[in-house]
Amino acid sequence: MVSYFATCSCLSDRRQFPSFFRTIPSDAFQVRAMLQILRRFGWTWVGLVISDDDYGRHTAHSFKSGLAKSGGGCLAYLEVLPWGHDVNEIQRIVGRMKKSTSSVVIVFAHPSNMLDLMEEVVKQNVTGLQWIASEAWSTAKVLHIPGYMHFLAGTLGIAIRRGEIPGLRDFLLTIRPDNDTLSTQENTLVRVSPNRLSLLSAL
After folding, report:
1. Residues 106, 59: one domain?
2. Is 70 exceeded by the pLDDT of residue 38?
3. Using one digit for the tens of pLDDT, what is the confidence trace for 147-171?
4. What pLDDT is recorded for position 165?
5. Quick check: is 7 in a domain?
């Protein structure tokens, strides 16, 4: 399997996912970038908000570990955004953000999580926060609306730069399911030649 979208650092475990490859960096790289942003601006007291899934929990673990190793700051709070429209929990989270003495909030979450969060931010009129966005929502068009601009203006975000991998397109266009393989129970669905396997291994 080759993914262009799955960034979870958990998928880098070769023992658990020996045949998973990706053309996008793992979240470990954006965590490093965020730590560099904090160091650059001297922000040492920050809030962290994550989605309730592998994406959020693994990045939170990496971020806390990196923050501790760098000795460059502390977490004011760590909040987990619920799935579904749990209004009471979202109200509580935004209330804590509003009361916190930290003005910097880092969010590793999906656009759908952010929509729920921003609706409550608007309702409680939480202004003056410096948002740092993960790649999952930094360029999401659903958040680029006039109603949110007063609250999200000045947000710093991580975005994935588009790039070309020489030979990948041609490789993907030439592979075909092998009928002989499909009719047996031994092998995988695609027969890959050694030179093509080396290309995939390099990703």
Report:
1. yes
2. yes
3. 999 999 999 998 877 777 788 788 8
4. 76
5. no
**Cβ pair 88, 120 in contact under 8 A:** no
Angstrom distance (rounded) from CA 67 to CA 111: 25
Tokens of 6: 């799955």
Number of domain units in the chain: 2
* pLDDT score of 203 more than 80: no
Distances (CA, A) of 31 to 42, 62, 116, 126: 16, 7, 24, 25
Pair (150, 168) in one structural domain: no
Tokens of 125: 């009129």
Q: With respect to residue 9, please indicate whether it lies within any of the assigned structural domains.
A: no
What's the pTM?
A: 0.74
**Structural domain harbouring 115:** 27-157
Are both 172 and 201 inside the same structural domain? yes
20: its two tokens: 């998973």
